[in-house]
Amino acid sequence: MKKKIHRVISTIVFFVLLVVAVFKCADVLEYKAARKKYTPFYESNTDFDVIYLGTSHVQNHILPMEIWKEYGIASYNWGYSNCTPAENYYLIKDILKYASPKVVVLDAYGLVEYEKYNNGKYRTDRIEQQHVQFDSLPISENKIEASKDVFDDYDHNYDFIWNFIMYHNRWEELGEDDFDYEYTTEKGATFLTGLGTSKYTPVPKDEKTQIDTVCYTYFLKIIEYCEDQGIQVLCTYLPFPAGKEQQRVANTIGDILEKYPGCRYVNMLDKNIIDMDTDVNDDGGHLNYLGAKKVSLWLGDYLKANYDLGDYSEYESWKSDYQKYSDFKIEKFNELTSLTSCLVMAGNDDINACLEVYDEKLKDDKTIKAVCRAAATELKYVERDTDDCARLVATSKLTGDIVVDISFAYDKKNPGNIFSIKRVEEK
Length: 427
Fold this sequence. Notes:
By secondary structure, the protein is α/β, with parallel strands linked by helices. It is built from 15 helices and 10 strands. The strands form 2 sheets. A 5-stranded parallel sheet has the order 2-1-3-4-5, sandwiched between helices. It has a 5-stranded mixed sheet with strand order 7-6-8-9-10. Helix 4 packs across helix 11 (289-306). It is globular.
């Protein structure tokens, strides 16, 4: 009898240790992007009155900390690259287990963009991106249903139920960042610092289109679900260099949403919020920090004027979080290498910036002048005998200390191109 009991206990202990070991391995092997982005949401000391849902346009164009600083609104950005309305439908169900938002901001980009990918619910070539948001969700009936529905034509959709199946072979990829990483200070957002050019040709406002896609169906389901939960929905079409068909979608969706009493719609393509010459990232399809800040402040003003939201301006936890965000912006600034990216980042309202140029051509360059204006950066010409062509200095508005001091030089292989001007590394 004692031997049998001993064997039973030994077996139980073995299986317990095995389960612990497997879950520990899963913890180590998991791609850490989800933890970095969403841990501050789950561990927040306060609730979030506003939740943002959508694709990378939401992730990169709406900056919750900038909105908090100006309007005291507590919000979190759940946008992510290629996150379709089908995915967002299930995400909001899980989000509401941990937060009680008064408003969900739902961007309409993605209604027609994913139809060419098999079932139209996700991008078949971006499985890793879809995992980021699903990885953050605890295993639940909703997560299982989402995995089976959204990825119904994906042979390995069970990867999304327990991500260890997806990551079990990452041993050779593990690096320092898997063990020592920092959580986002941007409340889920990610600002971009590139500077690019893009063509934007507005179409007439009466030009519309037929929207009949799988994602459109889920888009409406999100609105209906939020209304059932007593949550107001603000649908947006965030500004960016939209193509003609995308503009037609933006012109069309407002009429459709009028039948939903708890839903507002604002087509931000119409509002002249951004400048296509200074606010577009170098990928040509997203906004940089200058554009995102404009979008965020416009949206914050709209939210404050049209919804009954709390004022978190004096909450110590938010003040502390903003200081971390402010420090992060300076850290990011000092990591940049190109002059144009640094000028984009000089639009940070926490600093005063001045660009000294030692080449008269730079003083009169239209792009340099335009970005300096957009970033509220002083531009001055200084006669100086040096191989450098410019120096950018920024001081903290809070302390007056110099927080950025970077010198730049032309690329000798491409001396006439301002986009090739790079920082001079300290000797």
